[in-house]
Amino acid sequence: MKTLGYYNGKYDELENMSVPMNDRVCWFGDGVYDAGPCRNYKIFAIDEHVDRFFNSAGLIKMQVPCTKAELKALLQELVNKMDTGDLFIYFQVTRGTAVRTHEFPENVPANLWVMLKPMGTPDLYKKIRLLTQEDTRFLHCNIKTLNLLPSVMAAQKAKEAGCQEAVFHRGDRVTECAHSNCHILKDGILYTAPADNLILPGIARAHLIRICKKLEIPVSETPYTLKEMMDADEVLVTSSTKLCVAANEIDGTPVGGRAPETLKNILDAVMDEYMEETKA
């Protein structure tokens, strides 16, 4: 299969799939999701993604209709049906199918979705341009919900400005990006926003922290400001699909480029880990 859509046990090419209009995702975006890369038919960091998925579901009082082990087995089974093993894997759970009402429907099972499409290996060494925007999202950013309209709008604004990602800030405090986490290197230390309710606890963020500690680069999980980001030695952006890349411009102003050796060591280590864990 070139692409794959799965819904409650049924699967086909994405273009052939449909879902009920009364799925609560249509009315409320009532659900959570997770996503990540696959290479050589091996799903990268699958345990971490499934753990976060179940945690997000629990935080909105939603019961995933399978166990963690069953979900991992299903995802691998679906991956094995694809023409290529280099894929983007997306899965979500929604709060069932019922006539529209704000309150939770009773005795209605949740709906499980999966989407697979081809995706190549990310290029970690191509720098990106960023655009800053005020963070006007709600205060549950630690939950990976389907309510992504602010991120969609921010990503589109960044695209129209010729940038690859938008950096959110609440006042002067940098939080995260529209669909990534962001970090800075300054004087040999990695600074990253704390994993509170203002950011998503990114899987790639966690890998970056572990890699920096392995490289004996100190890590400070503390808030930092827009000015500190602009003055940083390097600005890093992490996500499950891009892994880790550096920025060379924010709002049209050049940034970073002051710690090239440290940056290369980090990017090499991130890529080495990905290639090793997904080798054929």
Automatic annotation (TrEMBL):
Top-rank taxon, per record: Bacteria
Keywords (A to Z) from UniProt: Aminotransferase, Pyridoxal phosphate, Transferase
Group of enzyme by EC: transferase
CDD domains: D-AAT_like
Annotated GO MF terms: D-alanine-2-oxoglutarate aminotransferase activity
GO CC, any one term: cytosol
Cofactor dependence: pyridoxal 5'-phosphate
Name the UniProt record assigns to this protein: D-alanine aminotransferase
InterPro entries: Aminotrans_IV, Aminotransferase-like, BCAT-like_C, BCAT-like_N, Class-IV_PLP-Dep_Aminotrnsfr
Similarity-based family: Belongs to the class-IV pyridoxal-phosphate-dependent aminotransferase family.
EC number(s) on file: 2.6.1.21
The organism's taxonomic lineage, starting at the top: Bacteria, Bacillati, Bacillota, Clostridia, Lachnospirales
Gene Ontology terms describing biological process: amino acid biosynthetic process; carboxylic acid biosynthetic process
